[in-house]
Amino acid sequence: MEDLNPRSVLVTGSNRGIGLELVKQLVGKSNPPEWIFATCRDPEGPRAKDLKNLAARHQHRVQIIQLDTSDPSSIKAAAAKITERLNGAGLNLLFNNAGIVKESNMESETPEKMLEVYNVNVIGPMVMIQVFLPLLRKASQESALKGMSCSKAAIVNISSLCGSIADVLAWDIGQIPNYRCSKAALNMLTRCQSLRYAEDKILCIALHPGWLQTDMGNAPGTAPTTVEDGVKEILKTLAQLSEKETGTFVNWDGKPLPW
Ligand code: NDP
């Protein structure tokens, strides 16, 4: 089985939920990345306590960096710090994980909610890649690995099957047009990124993480899967991805999903 072996990783929204668990499991690997840039919007706030405790146990390897994905100047400031810490090396694996949803149905949806969610779930991931592209390109160029992989250079956009036009997951549980439309747009963004960055051998994927027990996952009722189990499977899937999957929408278990 292929191994997931990136030298450097960046996760957005890493202070809780899926993002925090990604950092936990990556640093707990037998061959952990040399650098894990655990980014979050408020590193000094109460919601970053668990991440801070984790980073304290893995000093140097887990580095907390302030990054609000809805603020391009914060993204640029984070990229400057990360470039400095990488000291000439590239960034192998970038998780656009940060995401929000606003409770709504077709009647109660508002332009304000639609815009706020689009800003975090779509514009954030777009600006992230524009800003971090030089580091992703560098990682791809300096890698001795053939083809495309998450160990070489990859963008993983954490999407949702709620954004699938063909599937429309869990409509009866929540209509949430702001969220569904934003994830459908994130899927299109992933496709566009894959077309543009194919020549750089940067793998681009939209991934449905499964319905996991996080603050967001539990909001409509208890999710069936623990975040520990879900992230374990996601990391196994990421290890298997190659140029065959770039520009596609994949499930947590690696199966292809309908747009
Ligand atoms: P949580 O609500 O538990 O965590 C969301 C994370 O995103 C938090 O760390 C939050 O930070 C961060 N965040 C929100 N806005 C911003 C921002 N502007 N800048 C930086 N960070 C931000 O959600 P999950 O962990 O469950 O979700 C992670 C991703 O997985 C999301 O994209 C979500 O849509 C997707 N997903 C989740 C599913 C599930 O069942 N859990 C199912 C399908 C998809 P803060 O603490 O500061 O608010």
How big a fraction of the residues is strand? 5-15%
N→C terminal distance:
28 Å
Helix content: 40-55%
SS element count, helices: 7
Specify the biggest β-sheet: 7 strands, parallel
Structural class: alpha/beta
**How many beta-strand elements?**
7
Q: Quote the average pLDDT.
A: 97
List cofactors, ions and other ligands.
NADPH dihydro-nicotinamide-adenine-dinucleotide phosphate
In what order do the strands lie side by side in the largest sheet?
3-2-1-4-5-6-7
* Unreliable parts: none
Basic shape = globular
Description:
The protein has 259 residues and is α/β, with parallel strands linked by helices. Helices cover 41% and strands 13% of the residues. It is built from seven helices and seven strands. The protein has a seven-stranded parallel beta sheet with strand order 3-2-1-4-5-6-7, sandwiched between helices. Strand 2, helix 2 and strand 3 form a beta-alpha-beta unit. Helix 1 crosses helix 7 and helix 3 runs parallel beside helix 4. The longest helix has 32 residues. It is globular. GO terms for molecular function: oxidoreductase activity. Belongs to the short-chain dehydrogenases/reductases (SDR) family. Pfam families: adh_short.
